[in-house]
Write a structure and sequence with these properties.
The structure holds 2 protein chains of 2 kinds. By secondary structure, chain A is an all-alpha fold. Chain A has 2 domains: 2-72, no CATH class; 80-245, MetI-like (MetI-like fold), CATH 1.10.3720. Helices cover 79% and strands 0% of the residues of chain A. The longest helix of chain A is centred in the C-terminal third of the chain and has 35 residues, at 254-288. Chain A is globular. Chain B is mainly α. Chain B has helices at 2-6, 8-13, 15-20, 31-51, 68-74, 77-116, 118-133, 136-146, 153-160, 177-189, 191-203, 206-214, 219-230, 232-247, 251-256, 268-277, 282-317; strands at 54-55, 63-64. A two-stranded antiparallel ribbon of chain B has the order 1-2. Classes of the chains: A mainly alpha, B mainly alpha. The interface between A and B is large, with 100 and 103 residues.
């Protein structure tokens, strides 16, 4: 509110300094941003048209009447709530388990300073860099052998390891700078290592762990290759796999296809709106270290 | 064990310290993580390398064939084609987004945020980042929908503006299919460098710019002499992570073209997948996957060595 009352004056001051060049830069940058949003708008406009409406107008016209059949058809066809639940369960489990594993690993490496920690960090980093194809066939055989093939837990276990490899790398350096005095105070109070971890280290690093959890969730949600190969039955599929599976389908008309893309985008767009601040903080933290 | 030898002096001074640093018992905390890592990553990795020396169709046990898969790989035109297409993926995911990202981030930071307010700048930044958050495969479906041959949005729009002759079967034509995939990747990727570089620019000391301005250096001079060298660490991180991602591209190719038409869009990752699950040539697929891993490792090592060399040269120069 205070912002609004303040702006007129600051705006005046600012605009007096704006040159034509500034306006040109703003226009170019805004046009480029519009180009980035353009595909979203096209999908949004055409998901609410009937196929006849689409054929009679052009892709940029507003729907002549709101048509929900495309969305409803696709929703029922893939049993969308089931796919949402699968994706949500897999990503949520991975987010929690991978953070726990990362914390345990990083506690030993960053605070415990175990011997050979540099090589350990390199191994974890490597695990995160590998192309998933090298794991594909052996994991497929392992999961078949232990009866987890075509079971969501095969995907949960795999991504818990892949995401925690990155988490270990990041948290080990965060824990490496953990204030020694705090640890010493905990030890003087008679806390063992296990207690120190859960009642001192974890609560203090909670903001970082939260960022990691959000990232693990979204990264896992967006994964494609491993869910595609390990979850073959319809009822186990995740949102991205289910949406891709129907793309070649001749029975789907043009606007239902558009609706399928819309349904694929909506969940992650909602996460983005909820976690926008956490996300931008996290992305930059990862790169600047 | 080693801590026992080290500690006599410190043991008396601070008992707290001894129990917190070093010591074998921290190894317990690595057991769950390391066991999982061994089962899910390390064993499969070596298993896959072993498979690359065998003939394996997925049914009867793998049969050792020595180097024959590797010899076949070096003479396989499709394999080399897939890596040539990887270069196109690198152009689309590394070179174009990094260059555009630098320009956009600098413009947002220097001009938009200063003259039009930080709110406008962060709104535009979020806009550029939007495609990054949707699953890559959904991004591909969005762009694929726009590119569809019959009554697709792109063709209709071209007709609207009188360029109907340019209308094309974008994904079915070998001349344009690769460009359509590249378009998806540029669109998805552009927001990442913008966000990273804007954060990097905030880190740069404004006094450097003020001093340069006093010396009469223009915007381009300042960008070249101050901005670029100052944000070099972030540029390395962006270039390395995006190059690895470009070498791994799979989902857009799977969803849009299946490597076709006529192998025009085949990439190593998709080639591996098709050998595993379409041709049932598991041994040969494992060979391609191992080769891809070697390339990714080599690229990472080269990047990291180059970065440390540049940093060292920098420190000596000062």
């Amino acid at each position: 509110m205070t912002d609004i009352t303040k702006t007129p004056r600051t705006k005046m001051r600012r605009s007096s300094k704006r040159s034509i060049g500034n306006w040109i830069v703003l226009t170019v940058i805004a046009l480029a941003a519009a180009a980035v949003v353009f595909p979203f708008i096209i999908i949004l406009l055409n998901s609410f048209k009937s196929p006849a409406d689409y054929a009679s107008g052009n892709p940029l016209t507003l729907p002549s009447s709101l048509y929900f059949d495309g969305i409803v058809n696709f929703w029922n066809r893939v049993n969308f709530p089931e796919k949402l639940w699968n994706s949500f369960f897999i990503s949520g489990m991975v987010a929690v388990l991978a953070v726990i594993i990362s914390v345990l690993n990083a506690y030993a490496i960053g605070i415990g300073r175990v011997k050979g920690r540099i090589s350990l960090i390199l191994i974890f980093l490597l695990a995160n860099m590998l192309p998933q194809e090298v794991l594909l066939y052996p994991l497929y055989s392992i999961f078949r052998a232990i009866g987890l093939y075509d079971n969501v837990w095969s995907v949960i276990i795999t991504f818990t390891v892949i995401q925690s490899a990155f988490g270990t790398y990041l948290l080990a350096s965060v824990f490496g700078t953990f204030p020694k005095e705090v640890l010493e105070a905990a030890a003087l109070d008679g806390a063992g290592r296990w207690r120190t971890l859960w009642s001192v280290v974890v609560p203090i690093s909670w903001p970082t762990l939260g960022v990691l959890m959000v990232f693990f969730f979204i990264w896992t949600w967006n994964e494609f290759l491993i869910p595609l190969t390990f979850l073959i039955s319809n009822s186990n599929q995740t949102v991205p796999v289910a949406i891709t599976a129907l793309q070649g389908d001749r029975l789907m008309d043009v606007t239902t296809m558009s609706a399928s893309a819309l349904l694929g985008m909506i969940p992650t767009l909602i996460f983005f709106l909820i976690f926008q601040r956490t996300l931008t903080r996290g992305i930059t933290a990862g790169a600047v270290k | 064990m080693t801590t026992l030898e080290q500690t006599p002096a410190t043991r008396v001074a601070s008992p707290a310290r001894r129990s917190l640093t070093g010591g074998a018992s921290y190894w317990w905390y690595l057991i769950p993580g390391f066991t999982l890592l061994a089962v899910v990553i390390i064993i499969p990795l070596f298993w896959n390398i072993y498979l690359s020396f065998t003939d394996y169709r997925g049914v009867v046990a793998p049969e050792w064939t020595g180097l024959s898969n590797w010899i076949r790989l070096f003479g396989d035109e499709r394999f080399w084609l897939s890596f040539r297409n990887s270069i196109a993926m690198i152009i689309a995911m590394v070179i174009v987004p990094t260059l555009l990202g630098l320009v956009i981030a600098a413009a947002l930071f220097d001009v938009v945020a200063r003259k039009f307010g930080p709110k406008v700048a962060s709104f535009l930044r979020a806009t550029y980042y939007l495609p990054q958050i949707i699953p890559a495969v959904v991004a591909a479906i969005v762009i694929g929908w726009i590119h569809r041959p019959e009554n697709g949005a792109l063709n209709e729009l071209l007709e609207m503006v009188g360029l109907g002759v340019l209308a094309n079967n974008w994904l079915g034509d070998p001349n344009t299919a690769l460009f359509s995939i590249m378009a998806v990747l540029i669109w998805v990727q552009i927001g990442y460098p913008v966000v990273i570089f804007m954060a990097a620019l905030e880190r740069v000391d404004p006094e450097l710019y003020e001093a340069a301005e006093v010396d009469g250096a223009g915007w381009f001079r300042r960008f070249y002499a101050i901005t670029l060298p100052q944000i070099r660490p972030e540029t390395f991180v962006v270039a390395l992570t995006c190059t690895i991602a470009a070498l791994k591209v799979f989902a857009p190719v799977y969803a849009l073209t299946g490597g076709g038409p006529n192998n025009a869009t085949i990439v190593p990752s998709y080639y591996t997948y098709s050998q595993f699950f379409q041709s049932q040539q598991v041994g040969y697929g494992a060979t391609i996957a191992t080769a891809l891993t070697v390339v990714i490792l080599a690229v990472s090592i080269i990047f990291i060595l180059a970065q440390s060399r540049v940093e060292r040269a920098d420190q000596e120069g000062r």
